[in-house]
Structure formats: structure tokens, C-alpha cells
Amino acid sequence: MRTPQQACTSRPNTKPRGRGGRQPATGPAPVFTMVDRQHTARHSRRSDADVVSVMIRRIFTLLAITSLWASAAWAAPANIENNGAPHHVVDLVFIAEGYTVDEQDTFLADATQIYDGLMKSAPYNALRPLFSAHAIAVVSAESGSDHPATQVERDTAFDSTFDSNGISRLITANTGEIMARANAQMPSYDIAILVVNDAQYGGSGGAIPMVSLHPKAVAILRHELAHNLADLADEYEAPYPGYPPGDSEPNVTKQLDPVPWKSWVASDTPVPTAMAAATGPYSPIGAYEGARYQSKGIYRPAPSCLMRTLSAEFCPICAEAMILSVSGDSATIRGHQPAGSQIACVAGLCPMMSLTVTTQESVEVTWLLDGNAVAKGLEWTPPSTLVGAHVVVARSFDTSPLVRDDPASQLFESRQWQLTITGAPPPVDAAPADLFVPPIDTQPDAQEPTQPDAQEPTPPRRASAAGGCGASPWQSTPFGLLPLCLAAIVARRRRVL
Fold first, then answer.
1. Is the CB of residue 343 less than 8 Å from the CB of residue 147?
2. At residue 81, what are phi and psi to the nearest 5 degrees?
3. Mean pLDDT of successive 10-residue segments in the chain (497 residues)?
4. What pTM does this model have?
5. Is residue 260 one of the residues assigned to a domain?
6. Residue 424: what pLDDT?
7. 12 upstream amide cis, omega within 30 of 0
8. Taking each helix axis from N to C terminus, what angle separates 218-230 and 104-118, rounded to the nearest 10 degrees?
9. In this structure, what DSSP letter does residue 98 have?
């Protein structure tokens, strides 16, 4: 959902990864950029005793934090899941709100559970190898969050509160301080998410998505992150006065001929499409009137979607937009060998070439030699018959069935080498001359043993302990060894006697 307190934008991406992050929305400024004024007015009504009590709690919190600083300042962000270097993945950082110094381990468990819940549904589950998740522990003086409707106030690090704008489930907080903490501890982050230590159902979107610990609140986070990750529009029709008009988001349109998602529309589906034509919550894909806080003049792709109601899943158009956006902001190829782009080798002795890719099952790798596909898989070795100058390209492609239209080729990545091979290829079926070894004849010669030259007789030799009774070629045959070995045995017995 989008709220007056927070324009639904994300911090500009600071990573060198092509398209970068989502840019801030244009238009009139939101009613509140933060909730500081709201909290200031509420806190001004506190009695002197309340103020003193708050000051005492904050002093104790400061002492606790100071003791931690004495050892290692702020605790380093903990890894929930690390799937690659910052420039290879979309980095989510979960930040603690309303967790006391004794609840920091609980926060890490809560953040992990929320992340796992987020990644269980499509298309997040298919994109999980392209995300990394981290946790920043922040100490609050008190546990929980404010609930003005029931006069509950908690002294927390980022001054979070339910009941914002008169909506009980709407959580807001000091986004400026949250961003400052995230930038100080993890400047490479893409999206910061505030985890509010409160069991009541609630959350919100904007520059900093926020989520409570209620089991169903993770659906709020799935919805809100879709704004940040893929610039998806809300598809419900409840009015939002003052929100800037437009239809540039991937899942809404004012244009019907053709609709932006025409590759998903069957030829027999009427456009615009009446709700009576729906055969299921997500079919057929067409153009259903009512979206983006308006009931007339703007259209959505499916009868239902998570961008319209939190009890639904993403429709095919929104899922496709998510996959394309996250793929464009991350990297499928994580490494390649040889590392350089120039390879010079001798025919038959060229190195094996390889890619390292993510664990996505839908990713395939094709090897191209001078523009022609020659192999599939993660490895390829130039054949021994190849000589001359060539261009080798290894191309990865996400074959996800959830994508039909990829005009910007977000699902393709490649690595290229200039390959120069010198020397003539070895003859086919011929062993190299320097490796030729004559066969060993293991059978005795059928002919009579060769006699020694009569002019150069070979004197008989004593049998050796090493197993040779003679050293000449003819003596090494069975016929030559027998008389010498017998003579040696007779001589040894005479000496003994």
C-alpha cells in the first residue's frame, strides 16, 4: 500500500549494476515525509513525570550501548543469507526496531523467519539466488511499538507507531534515521526493511518497507517490495487524493490498442475485458478496468493479483516484471575462466573454458564459436583441429517460463574471449612421435634362441641375488638362464661341503 506518510520510492541504487535501483517518484510532495511532527505533537502532551521516566530509560540504554561500543562499537551486520558479492545481488538489510539489548538474538531469528517467508512464494522463490539478506541489530530502550489508539507508548530507536493516518495496521517511523543507520553500517545495501517487534498485524511501504511480527504481515512485505523492486503499481481502486497521475508502471495502462502485455493476451480474449469473462483469479489475461486508485479509465492485466489484494498471488504480468527487474539488477554469471579476454594457445593444447553461474535451475549456458552454437553446459574446450583467430562467447539465459517478453534482454548475460590458435593440428588417429612406445612382446620367440657370436664368446656369469643369472640377451631367455643357474647351485653346494 502507499501512504501519505511515505512516497513509495526507494533509495537510488549506488551499485554499478546497469540499470540501478528505482528512482524516486515525481509529483507533489507527500503529506508527511516522516512522522516527526506527528510524534512531536504526541510527545508534547506527556507529563513531566513521563518525560523524566523517558530520560532515565534513555540514560540506561545509552549506558548499555556505550558498553557495547567499548568492545566493538556497533555490531557488524549479520548474514541471513549471502548469495554473492554486493555487485552481483540485490542486498536486503533488515533493521531492528523495538528490540531491547536482551532481545538481539530474538531479532536475528525474527528477521530470518520473515526473509524465509518472503522467499516461499513466486516469483521470489525463483529469484532467491539473486538476493542476499543481512540484519542490523539496533538496541531500543523498550520493547515493542507505539499504539496511540490504546494509549500505548514505547521508547524505541526509530520511534515507530501503529495507527498512522487513522489506520490501525499502518506502521510509520523515522525513515531518515533508519536510512542513516543503514548507510553507516552497510552502505552497499539496496533496500532496508524495518522489523518492528510487535505481534499486531501491520506494516507499510515506501522508501523503507516496514513489517510487524504477525504471521500474515509477510504478505504486506511481498506487496511493498514489489513497488521497490519492479515499480509495480497498486491495482486497487480506493482513492488516493493527491497521488500523481500516470500509467508508466508495468502492470497498469490507459492504452488498449495494444495493451503493453499483449504477448500474454489470447486472440479470443476481448479487450477491454469484463469481470464476467474471468475463468480464475489470474485468467484470462486481458484488460480489466479499475486500478491505481481509480475505478475508471485505467486497466490491469488480471482479475486479481497481490498488487490488488493481499490474499492473492502475483498475476503473470507482475511476476514477469519482478523477474526482469531483479535479473537486471543482479548477475547470473559469477565467474569465468580463463580470467583474461585474450587467449593464445597451440592447436590441441588450448585450455578448457568455463563459467560459474547462480544456482537457478532455469539458467542454461550456450557456447558460440564465431557466432555459431557449438556446445551447451558450463565448460567447453576448443577442439584440437581448430586453428586461427576466433571469437568465443559463453551466453547464459534464464529460461524461466514466467517470462514471455524481454525487450531489454535482461535474462541474457555473456562473456567473450578472443582466441588465437597457432600450429598445425595433429593428424587424425595418429599418436605424437615423441609419445610413441613400441609394443612389448610378452610371448617367447617361437624360433630357436639366438646363439652368441662364435668369435666373441660370452663367459658364463654367476647368478645374482637381484634375480638375473646372466646379463647377455641370449642368457636372459629361459633357455639361457637354466644351465647357468644350475651351475651356480652346484658350485654353492661344493663350497658348503
1. no
2. -155, 125
3. 39 33 32 32 42 57 50 80 96 98 97 98 97 98 97 97 96 97 96 98 97 97 98 94 83 95 97 97 97 95 98 98 97 96 95 95 96 97 96 97 96 97 70 44 44 43 41 44 48 46
4. 0.73
5. no
6. 73
7. no
8. 70
9. S
- The H or E element that residue 61 is part of is helix 48-72
* 457 within domain boundaries: no
Burial bucket for residue 143 (CB in 10 Å: 0-12, 13-18, 19+) = middle
Q: What is the CATH number of the domain that holds 169?
A: 3.40.390
CA 14 to chain centre: 18
Rounded to 5°, angle at Cα 26 from 23 and 30 = 110
Cell numbers for 292, please give them. Answer: 491505481
In angstroms, the CA 184 to CA 182 distance is 5
The residue among 404, 422, 440 that closes a domain is 422
Query: How would you classify the pairing of strands 363-369 and 388-398?
Result: antiparallel
Instruction: Kindly write down the DSSP assignment for every residue of 154-203, as one continuous string.
Output: ---TT--BSSGGG-TTB-B--HHHHHHHHHHH-TT-SEEEEEE---SS-E
Contact 286, 198 (CB under 8 A): no
Contact (CB, 8 A) for 123 and 306:
no
For the sheet with 131-136, list strands across it.
Answer: 78-81, 131-136, 90-97, 191-196, 210-211, 203-204
pLDDT at 248: 84
Asked whether 207 and 176 are in contact (CB, 8 A), the reply is no
Where does residue 123 fall: left (phi above 0), alpha (psi -120 to 50 degrees), or beta otherwise? alpha
Q: DSSP label at 479?
A: H
How far is Cα 102 from Cα 185, in angstroms, rounded to an integer? 21
**How many folded domains does the chain comprise?**
2
CATH of the domain at 405: 2.60.40.10
Specify whether 194 is located in the same domain as 342.
no
* Cell numbers found for residue 91: 542486498
Does 197 map to a domain?
yes
Q: Would residue 431 count as lying in a domain?
A: no
Task: Give the residue from 392, 388, 390 showing the smallest Cα distance to 423.
Answer: 388
What's the CA gap between 212 and 220, in Å, rounded? 9
74's grid cell: 556497533
> Which residues form the domain of 90?
1-205
pLDDT of residue 118: 97
End-of-domain residue from the set 189, 205, 221: 205
Q: What is the pLDDT of residue 433?
A: 43
User: Which pLDDT belongs to residue 279?
Assistant: 97
